[in-house]
Amino acid sequence: MAAIKEEAQQVISDIVLQLQVTNAQLLLRWVLHHNYAALVKTTKSFRMAENLKIFEFEIPTKYIAQLDRLNQDQPIAWATAGLDPMKSAPTI
Ligand SMILES: NC(=O)c1ccc[n+]([C@@H]2O[C@H](COP(=O)([O-])OP(=O)(O)OC[C@H]3O[C@@H](n4cnc5c(N)ncnc54)[C@H](OP(=O)(O)O)[C@@H]3O)[C@@H](O)[C@H]2O)c1
């Protein structure tokens, strides 16, 4: 797992250097490229400006392919109030 994370970080670092964007911009733009929903929240105006700039560039196809290869289709869920949403369903 650590090797995968290191490989992912290396791929991301190389691409952000080429495109002159931040890690967050690259990954948010990748989300947008695939028409996935991104819920972005920040308390800092400079990050809000940074995040809005994802509409001003596109990721070239060769880099999209590199990022796609890192995707492991693992679900992501939030754990709040001590609950693990992967183990327990809320009671309605
Ligand atoms: N969590 C849930 O279960 C849930 C469910 C439904 C809807 N939502 C909505 O989804 C949105 C996000 O929720 P969340 O739980 O992901 O929020 P969060 O974890 O509380 O906040 C997002 C985090 O991303 C950071 N961030 C934003 N832009 C960044 C950037 N460019 N670089 C580095 N860090 C950056 C923010 O840091 P700074 O503030 O320091 O910039 C903050 O720590 C919210 O509008 C929330 O209402 C959440």
Can you tell me about this structure?
There is one protein chain. The protein is mainly α. The protein has one domain. The protein is globular. It starts with a helix and ends in a 22-residue tail after the last helix. It binds NADP nicotinamide-adenine-dinucleotide phosphate. The site of NADP nicotinamide-adenine-dinucleotide phosphate has 12 residues, from α3.
Report the uncertain regions.
none
The count of domains is 1
Number of helices: 4
Span from first to last CA?
Answer: 36 Å
**Strand portion:** under 5%
Structure summary, number of beta strands: 0
Helix content: 40-55%
| Main pleated-sheet profile | none
Question: Average pLDDT, to the nearest integer?
Answer: 86
Topology as a string of helices (H) and strands (E) = HHHH
Bound molecules: NADP nicotinamide-adenine-dinucleotide phosphate
- Rg (CA only): 16 Å
Overall shape: globular
Quickly give the structural class.
mainly alpha
Topology at a glance:
Elements: H1 2-19, H2 23-33, H3 45-52, H4 61-70
Helix pairs in contact: 1-4
The protein binds NADP nicotinamide-adenine-dinucleotide phosphate.
In short:
Helices cover 51% and strands 0% of the residues. The protein is mainly α and 92 residues long.
Using brief descriptors, characterize the structure shown.
binds NADP nicotinamide-adenine-dinucleotide phosphate, mainly alpha, 0% strand
